Each structure stands twice: as C-alpha cells, then as structure tokens.
C-alpha cells in the first residue's frame, strides 16, 4: 500500500539531454521551478513526489520533506541544477475552486490520474482544461497515469491517456509510485521540457 | 523561541548600525521614505509597489555601503530584515487594514467563523480520525492566534509557518505510527481549515493581504509561499463556505447556522433596559421550549440533539441576561471613576464602610 515501502531505485543524477545553451543568464545554472500537482484525491499525487524525493536521496542535497510541500534539487549532466518546488493540492471536489491560488505562477503542472479509475481520468481532463484556460501560457503540462502496477484493475488504457495528452500538447507517462517505475523519468522529461532562461 | 530571540538581536543590531554616524545617508533615505508616505492617500497597491521598490533600492545601497563592506550575505540579509521591520512598524497604522472594505471583510469572516465554531466538527470536513489530536490542534491554533502579536510582515508570516509545521508534524507522525500513506495536501488542507476555524485568528483577511503586500517579495517564495497560499485558500474556503462545502445535510447546515445566529444575537454587549425587557418578554412569551411538559421516559436518543441546542440557547440567554443585570448594577460607580477619580475613591470607601456597617449589624 505504502508509497514508501520499497527501496529507492537509486537512479539519481542521470539526467541527460540538457544543452549548454543556458549558461549565460545569471541563474541559468540553478533553475528554481514551481511545480504544481493536480488530480483527484487518492490517485497517489503525494506518493509520486515522496518516491521522487526519497529516490533521489543524497546526503549532501538539501531536501525539504513536508506532508504537502516538497523540494528536491537534481543535478544535470551539464552541471546545471534544477530545484523542483513541488506544490501539492487537495484533490477533493470541495476544494476545486481553490486550485487557481496554487497553480498561479507555476512553471509546471503535473496532472495525475489513477489508471484503475475512469472517474479520476475524467477529473484529470477537467484540470487540463482549467490549466489551459487559466494557467500561465508557457506552462509545461504533464499527464500522469499512476498505479501502473495494478494492471489487472486497469480502467483507462495507455492509448486513451496517450491520445488525450498528444491532443493537448502534453507529455504523457504512466508511473507506479509503489514500484518506483518511471518516477525519475517523469521528472527528467519535465526538466527537458522546461523553457531555459534566454541566453541573450 | 530561538528564532524570536535571534530575530530581536538582529533587529537591535540593525538599529545600532543605523545609529552609527557613517550610516547617516541611509537614515536620511529611510526617514524621507517614511515621510513621503504621508503625502499620498493610502492605496494598498501603490503603497506596496513603492515599499518593494524602496527595499530594492536600499538593498543595493546597503551592499555598496562602507558600513557593510566585507559583510557576508547573511549580514546583508539581516539588515534588510531589520529595515523591513523598522519601516513597516512606522507605517503600520497607515497601511494595515486601511480600507473600509478590508475591515468589512475581516468582520464578515470573524462573524462567520464564530457561527461555524458552534457546530462544525472535523467529520464535516472528512478529517480522518487518526488525525484528531487535540493537543496538536491546540498548539497549531495558538500559533495562528499570535498573528497580531507583531507588526512585522516576516513575523506574521512566521506564525502561519509555525502553525503549518505543527500540522505537518501531526501528519508525518500519523503516517509513521499508523503506518499510513501520507495523503499530502488531501489531508493537510482540511486540517488547516479546521484549525483556522477553531482559532478564528484576528483580522485574517487584512493580515494575509498585509503579508502579501509588504513582505519582501524575494522572501515570499518557495515553502513560505506555499504555506501562505494554503492559509489564503483556507480563508477563501471559509468565506465562501456553504452547505455544499461540507459533508453535512443542506437543511441541517442551514438550521445550525440560523441557531448560531440566534444565539449570537442573544448575547448583547450593551446592557440596556429595553433589551432586558425584550429578553424577559421572550422568556414570559409563548413557550418555544417543547420539552417543558415532557417526561424522561418519553424522550428518545434523537431528542438529545435538540435538547442540547435548546439547553445551549437557554444558558446563553441566561448568561447574557445576568451579565446585563450585573453591568447595570456596577455601571454607576464605574462611570464616576471615569469622571472623577477622587470622588470615586470616596464613593468606594463609603461603599466599603457601608458593607462593614451592614456586616456589623
């Protein structure tokens, strides 16, 4: 059950594909990125993040572990660092109207659903529309189908997730916070898609 | 406590440096900035912009200043914290809760929370029972209630962060001892909302607005910004709260709100004869207490709720009536104290004598 039960996959610091073109702007070497997590309650938003933060565990890196705010810095191959500041949001319906307070100014929004729940996929689509309407125009959007380890209970096909994401210009991935599958890949791909500070 | 004491040390250090003759130019800028504020009508957005710009200007002035030559980044930071606190404290009365609109919203929220307090339970926000922890909740409430203890935006923000840290610890502990998955914001926000309602922090809206406008912009980021946003959203949730916001029957919610309103209206602060006679007629009037003729064996468990709310109603009315009567009795000597101190002393003395005499008799 727990998202903290298995071992971290220890694949820290293997981000690739970052170019050198960002080294000119003063803080281009150290990006600070606000990432907001949206999705129905119970889809495992916070488990994904805990898995990411603990999986990247490195005694020298400064990690903030709260229950709902976490930050984690990852080093890229080109010696730049990306500090993800991860803002969790309450997924219950009654708090839906508060979401804009959280995603305002976010560089990344990760919309999570549970592959074993069609309802959570419908809710995810609602968030995507919300973000397209009210999020900042250059926001990086990722669609995540979590609980991919529960194949036997799958209600949302990979194809459906992928098609929806492509149609909306989002990055798509299925993860399992339980087995740590694709957790690091998710954040690596996000880092690749970040608009880098202008070089001139 | 450590943070608070080191904070005041920092602040005195800042004041000390400002007393140094070498900083006369900085002092001049600060003074003229403060004075310039009185030239303009208060306008939160403009005032905030001017203050934030001023801090940026001063930041570079301090970095280039001989008094801070060779200073560490931390020392410069401390000077800026000191500056923020100093200037804001001077301008506080002008800029805090400065519009009638803000004052109105503060009142509305305080009143609404007062009503909600009388019936809202953690279950109504679906807070799981393993997070019901009275001592943690009380601690978190106390932190939030300290928000008016300081005028400095940083210290006000610290109250919010401390409150959120207590909740965080509660969540983390629960996840460890109960061996549960941390539900993150799904658990955090409902608890914060409940704590906010229990605490009813003074001038919630104005305090949040004040922090947003006057906390140094480069410091209201990251974790601080996150927890600040959570309280902002708790406030917004409470402000718009209706039956749909809670796990509660719509009709029941409305009844509870009405009952709470009635009992609040029945708690007059002003003791005046008209009000008291109004209460008396109410008591004498048609019986709104359906259990007066009931026998114990006729009652069912379902009646408990109604009985309890009637009981509360009666006690509230009785208490306010008694308070009003007491005030009427005490009022006269008090007014004399205000008008004429010597006279009142005499009055009190003669009263004492009167008591002694009557007890002697």
Précis, in short:
The complex is a heterodimer of chains A (200) and B (361). In chain A, 27% of the residues lie in helices and 22% in strands.
Describe the structure.
The complex is a heterodimer of chains A (200) and B (361). Chain A has helices spanning 45-55, 99-103, 118-134, 158-167, 183-193, and strands at residues 30-39, 64-65, 69-75, 81-88, 108-114, 140-146, 171-174. Chain A is of the alpha/beta class. Chain A has a single domain, classed as Rossmann fold, CATH 3.40.50.300. Chain A has a seven-stranded mixed beta sheet with strand order 2-3-4-1-5-6-7, with helices on both faces. The termini of chain A are far apart. Residues 4-26 of chain A have low confidence and may be disordered. By secondary structure, chain B is an all-alpha fold. Chain B folds into two domains: 2-95, Serum Albumin, Chain A, Domain 1 (Orthogonal Bundle); 100-266, VPS9 domain (Glutathione S-transferase Yfyf (Class Pi), Chain A, domain 2, Up-down Bundle), CATH 1.20.1050. Chain B is built from 14 helices and no strands. In chain B, helix 3 packs antiparallel against helix 4 (73-95), helix 7 packs across helix 10 (222-240) and helix 11 (250-265) packs parallel to helix 13. The longest helix of chain B is centred in the last third of the chain and has 37 residues, at 303-339.
